[in-house]
Every structure is written in C-alpha cells, then in structure tokens.
Amino acid sequence: MVMKSSKNYYEILGLTPDSDSGELKSAYRRLARKYHPDVNKAPESAEKFKDILEAYETLSDEKKRIQYDTLNGFFKTGATHRNSQESIYRYKKTASSTKTEENIPPKADKTFSEDLYRKKFFRESINSILDEITRTHNSRKKQKTVKNGDDIHTEISITLTEAVKGTERILNIMHKELCPQCKGHRFINGSKCRTCNGTGEYSTHKKITVKIPAGIKNNSILRLQNEGNPGFNGGVNGNLYISVKIEKNTHIEIEGVNILYRLPITPFEAVLGGKIPLPSIDGSINLTIPPMTHSGQKFRLANQGLQTNGKFGDMIVTVEIQIPQKLTSDEVKMYEKLKKMSQCNIRENIKNE
Questions:
Q1: Which are the contacts of 351, defined by CB distance < 8 A and separation ≥ 6?
Q2: Residue 214 pLDDT
Q3: Is the full-model pTM beyond 0.70?
Q4: How far apart are alpha carbons 94 and 103 in whole angstroms?
Q5: What one-character DSSP code corresponds to residue 247?
Q6: Is the dihedral of CA 150, 153, 154, 158 positive or negative?
Q7: Which residues, other chains included, contact 110 with Cβ-Cβ below 8 Å and sequence gap of 6+?
Q8: Residue 122, SS3?
C-alpha cells in the first residue's frame, strides 16, 4: 500500500504527471546509468540511486501510481496526454446509457469529463487503500503471537511430623491475571489501557489450598497444573511449582521408612536404667533401657517407623548421656560424695585400647 510521501517522484525522475510509461522507462534508464553505485563512486550517488529506484517502482505500477497521485495531489492535465484522454473516454463510455453517439470523444464537455475521471480515480484509490488497511489489520490479528503463561515457583516449609502424616497449606501467591478492562489486548480505542498501563495484565494475590501428601521427602517438588500466570492469544496457563522443605529437627531424622531418634538421658538413668517416655509421630511410647547403658547405645523398636506398601519401618533410638545444665547445690554435693566413693578408674586402659 502506498502512503502519502514527502518525496516528489516526478521531480526525482525529471518528469511530469502527464509522462507516459515510455518516458518513465527512458528517464529511469538514463538516471540509473548515471547514478548506479557500480558506475558512480560519489558518496551521494547511492542515496540518489535509491530515490530513483523507489520513484520508478512506484510510478511504473499502475495501481501504486494512482494511489500516489491521489494522495499527493498529482493529476494529469488531460489535454496533452493520450492515455489520459483514452481513460476519460473509456470511463464516459462505460457510464453512458446511449449506444453510439457517446462512443465519440466529446469536444465541448472536456472539463466535465476530466472532473469525472478524477473523481473516479480518487474513489477507486481510496477504496483500494481502505481494502488494503482492512487486509493488513485482519492479517495482523491472525498473526498475533500465541504466548503461554509463565510458571510460578515458590517454597514452603513443613515440620517432620507434617511430612510423615501429610498436611495442608493455604498459599498466598502473587499471581498475574488478564486485565479486566482491556482483556489482555493492552489498548482500548487506540489508546494505552489505563488500568494495566498497556501491559495487558495486572498482579494480584491469589489464595491456593495445597495438599501435602503423607511421606513426602525433603526438597520434593509439587506441581499444580494451570495455576501459574495466564497465557495470551490462546496460550495455555503456566504451572505452579512448590518446593517442599522439611524443617530440621535436632532429635529426629527420616531414613527411608525408618525413624532415627537421638534420645538424651541423665547419668543416673544410664546407671540405673528404667522406662523413658519417648515422643513419637503418633503420640508417645515407653522405651525400656537396661542398667549401665552407655552413651551411643542403640535400641530398635520394631514397626514404629513409617508405613509404605502396607509395611512398617522401625524406630532406631540412639541414647546420649548428657549432664543437666543446671544443678542444685545438693545435687553437686551428691556428685562430690560419689567422686569420693568411686574406686573405678575408667581411663586406666586408655593407652592400650
């Protein structure tokens, strides 16, 4: 489609609007031989030749020439150009309802014929331009790029008990939605949408309930399909990816289906033994330790671990003898008395072991 141009193509080629196709070709060949970059090495010749080529390509195409003439105000005089006169006669012949007399070129009604000719060409040019605009617009609509929505990534932390038994979380996710005003088109009536500032989308918080399955492992990734950002022009929504982190517990770890438990005990519990209440995933159980238990000793509680495929793992308890951080004066005196009473040297074989 030819748009209104600030360049005078007729002046560039040294012609007038009345020049015919033969004169147009002659002028182009003459100027091309003079300004072609392969012949003329002057710095300005390349730009000059570009204008010459642009002018010739427009004026040598009948449809483009009509559009160019109409938009830029160039009209043939009709008095000296044979093709122009013939076009006028052909137009009057088609428009006429008589049979023979009007096939003869009129002499007295030349001005009226030229006006009709110009109006006809102007109308045809405008219609052609409008058709071209419509085709371009429809083509651009069809060629809109389909864009899939972006994925959203987030992270949550759960306790070890929640990891074993399963749980739920309500997440408040920053989420992008299509602009409710422009519906993602970004412009309204040719102006940038004020609601989304021309982005076609806006950010909002969205609450999503997520179910955490029982027995989930640390750093597991949960995927919620289509819960990401929306797509454009028919594109699919993105997904929401949730990284699950299990909070560290200084006393409990999971190893496969087994639960590893580090149990602190006092010195007198290690010496005397007894039943010690042990917190577990489902409540509490009693662990019986024998007298003279040493630090680091392990005890296995069968079927007290995690369940998988109908089978239970075990709970493996490692005892650690720890001295209380706070002791009463009476307790300290008892330890002093025990020191005086003790006849065992636990370090006598340290060199031989």
A1: none
A2: 85
A3: no
A4: 9
A5: P
A6: positive
A7: 78, 79
A8: helix
DSSP 166-183: -EEEEEEEEEEEE-TTTT
45-59 helix and 21-35 helix, angle to the nearest 10 degrees:
160
Mean pLDDT of 48-73: 88
Helix (H, G, I), strand (E, B) or coil at 42: coil
Question: Which residues lie closer than 8 Å to 306 by C-beta, 6 or more apart?
Answer: 164, 215, 254, 257, 258, 259, 312, 313
Alpha-carbon distance 295 to 86, whole Å?
Answer: 117
Q: Which residues face 315 on adjacent strands?
A: 259, 301
178-199 residue pLDDT tens: 788 887 778 887 788 888 888 8
Q: How confident is the model at residue 83 (pLDDT cuts 50, 70, 90)?
A: very low
User: Helix count (H) and strand count (E) of the chain?
Assistant: 9, 15
Query: What share of the chain has pLDDT > 90, as a percent?
Result: 27
* Residue 129 dihedral angles phi and psi, to the nearest 5°: -65, -45
State both tokens at 306: 């995690």
Map residue 68 onto helix, strand or coil: helix
How far is residue 197's CA from residue 179's CA, in Å, rounded to a whole number? 10
The C-alpha atoms of residue 293 and residue 265 are separated, in whole angstroms, by: 10
CB-based burial label for 291 (10 Å; 0-12, 13-18, 19+): exposed
* CA pseudo-torsion sign 44, 50, 51, 52: positive
In the block, residue with structure tokens 């007894």: 274
- In this predicted structure, the answer to whether residue 148 has a pLDDT above a threshold of 60 is yes
Q: Closest Cα to residue 122, out of 173, 186, 48, 66?
A: 66
Do 126 and 71 form a contact (C-beta atoms < 8 A)?
no
Q: Domains in the chain, please, with CATH?
A: 9-142 (1.10.287.110), 152-246 (2.60.260.20), 252-341 (2.60.260.20)
The set of long-range contacts for 223-228, using a CB threshold of 8 Å and a minimum separation of 24, is 227/152, 227/173, 228/149, 228/150, 228/151, 228/152
Tokens of 121: 């060409």
